[in-house]
Amino acid sequence: MHGLLKHTLALAVVATYHGVCASDAPTIRWESCDGIIPMDVQETFGAHLQCGQLTTIRDHGDSSSPAVARDVIRIRATLGQDTPPPTLFVDFGRQRFETMPSTVLEWRTSNADDPETSGFRKLVDRFDIVFLSHRGDTKTFRQRCGKFDYASAVAVLAMPPESADHDTMWDSVIGNARDIATRCAPVTQEVDTWQQVRDMDDLRRALGVERLDLYGQDLGARVLTTYAVTFPQHAGRLLLQGAMDFTDGLDAVYTGTPYGLELVLWRNAFVPAANDEGRWKLGGDPSDVRERFMEIPFELRYLWSGLMRRPEHIRTAIDIAHLYLMVPVDVRGRERLIHDVASHRFADDPAVDALVRKASRPLVERLPREGGSILDTFKAFDGSYIAPICNDARWKTEPEVVRDWLTKEVALRAAFSKQAVEQMLVCSQWPAATHEGPSLDDLRRIPAFVVMHDEENPWQPLWNIQQATDKLPNATLVVRESAGADISDHRFSCYRHLGTHYLLTGELPGARKNYCSPGDPQPRTASRHER
Description:
Elements: H1 3-20, E1 27-31, H2 39-45, E2 49-57, E3 67-75, E4 87-91, H3 100-108, H4 118-126, E5 128-132, H5 139-145, H6 150-158, H7 166-184, H8 193-207, E6 212-217, H9 219-230, E7 235-241, H10 249-275, H11 277-280, H12 286-294, H13 298-303, H14 311-325, H15 334-343, H16 350-365, H17 383-390, H18 399-406, H19 409-413, H20 418-428, H21 440-444, E8 449-454, H22 462-469, E9 475-480, H23 493-505, E10 513-516
Parallel strand pairs: 4-5, 4-6, 6-7, 7-8, 8-9, 9-10
Antiparallel strand pairs: 1-2, 2-3, 3-5
Helix pairs in contact: 4-23, 6-7, 7-20, 8-9, 10-12, 10-14, 14-16, 15-16
């Protein structure tokens, strides 16, 4: 069923629900923030900070469904105004709900004269900022859904498809994914984006406001994209950071990912390292640098996905892998490695040695604390994360399609996202997924909006975002370009300023594409890679 038709039917369901329950309009019961919000946040905002419970419905598709309570936090505009302030709905995605006001505290206490942060401070001054807890924000799902076996999944990914044990191991991985999906789906059937955006609109109604301006990051940006399409009459300015949400087939969602990650590595690591071979000692051609990168065992490349982006990261990863693997397994561990790194010389040039040594820290921190398999470090399955994704029909794919995609050589060669692997495997076994997200055609019909993206985002490559925004004449792209190896304490005033200025004024950046380099207050209309 096409996205727009699904969208129309969904609106009909909501209209029916609100017609049946008109006398039971959603309400908020405001209460103390003690025990919920840190005291430093409470003391800073004082009476401007409010916590409460939104009364909404468990299943918006069933008018007889029981009522449920959802946590709400509101920070009232800190400057007095002649007219009621606009309301900014903020969703930081995977960030824990109760910590979100701490981020706003950072905005409030930032330097008002700093072009990088002054826009965020003005948001706190002029907007009522609201947060709504996600469906699925509970440990119950993690306990009842089971654990995803990353070790087996990575092992089969690292194995050549023609290996004798490949089919058997693959069947085991699929069995694990099926067990999780079978246990998790029944207890999370109302945990999806379709329900979440209707909770958002109930919040809008309970607050008594006509419009919500929207600012979302990663998974939050996905939810807000859907809200803007589902309730266009109530969606104001839309600022997305790090993600979008639309239905355009598995290829559009996934196939670009390994290519995009490879492209990021090629541009930001392989080519610069080859251009300065005397400094990095990784080879004089980008292909040579890539071969050195491939010397790092697959399990470590997988573990370090997202951390290897520039020449110094490749240089340190090669050395760290060697130091780690040369130690016997029974005495191998993080503490031993920290000792070995302290006495290791990464480069003859003291400046390069210091830079590479600094880059080694996050890689070391991801390794096991004590002896054992690298694969043991992967986190357990988190049902609260996977449910809203697998409950959306766009992620439902046949296992063999997933297998073919995952075993493509390119998927094994890039620093791949563990979350995407988990998502594809578990969602392929999900028993029921009825709601689709908006299509690109749906997104074309909403008012102009802004998408901010970091060139070094490890989970959503810029290439993927560009493919979508190129197809959307109403989307303006703002890109934060890489700082490079030699810049520390860099500023991106252009990047953040353009985003916050849009929320504050409604004025779009001057071009469809805007590229912000470190320390540059003015954007360019072409990427430095295109010059």
